[in-house]
Amino acid sequence: MAAILTDDVLEQARHGDTGALTAIYQNLAAPVHGYLAAKGLEDPEAAAQEVFLTVFARLADVTGGAAGLRKFTFSIAHARMVDATRARARAPLAVEYDAATDPRVESSPQDELLGRLESGNLAQALESLVPDQRECVMLRIVAGMSIEETAEIMGKSAGSIKQLQRRGLLTMKKSLEEVNGDD
């Protein structure tokens, strides 16, 4: 249980008594946090910490004893809330990225390849690859292995796997386009 906030506790805190500073924090932190949270701040914990950093740095400015400290603390909390509200109003609206609605997105060779799996020409396209490319594509796309897992299995670097996959998918795409007459 926190010590009661008195004028003596405030005076001790002004002289750097850590117990008194702790008592101030324990008495006022929950109400300050509750106030900031009720006002809708995105991060009331961080704002409350800023309030107490300011309060502790300016204890010499507090007048009116313990009641004045409480008033001073909540005036700083209110100022932080106003600052945060103004900053949020000036900030651009944050919207989650949705690739499905982004007109700049082009399909990758992997997406196109997977889209053509139903064409029945996949085996022929796989045969157009050199053995390392085929193994890489099979492990990455068909087996769903990560780049690191594929690199370990094939005894190659992650960069080599990325290149093998890229080149293999482009070769397969070209092979499927030739078979399907897409030019």
From TrEMBL:
Entry annotated with the keyword Transcription: yes
Record GO biological process: DNA-templated transcription initiation
Keyword check for Amino-acid biosynthesis: no
Domain (RNA polymerase sigma factor 70 region 4 type): residue spans on this chain: 121-171
InterPro entries attached to this UniProt entry: RNA_pol_sigma-70-like, RNA_pol_sigma-70_dom, RNA_pol_sigma70_r4_t2, RNA_pol_sigma_r2, RNA_pol_sigma_r3/r4-like, WH-like_DNA-bd_sf
Gene Ontology terms, MF aspect: DNA binding; sigma factor activity
Database matches in Pfam families: Sigma70_r4_2
PANTHER family: RNA POLYMERASE ECF-TYPE SIGMA FACTO, RNA POLYMERASE SIGMA-70 FACTOR
Entry similarity comment: Belongs to the sigma-70 factor family. ECF subfamily.
Protein name in the entry: RNA polymerase sigma-70 factor (ECF subfamily)
Source organism of this protein record: Zhihengliuella halotolerans
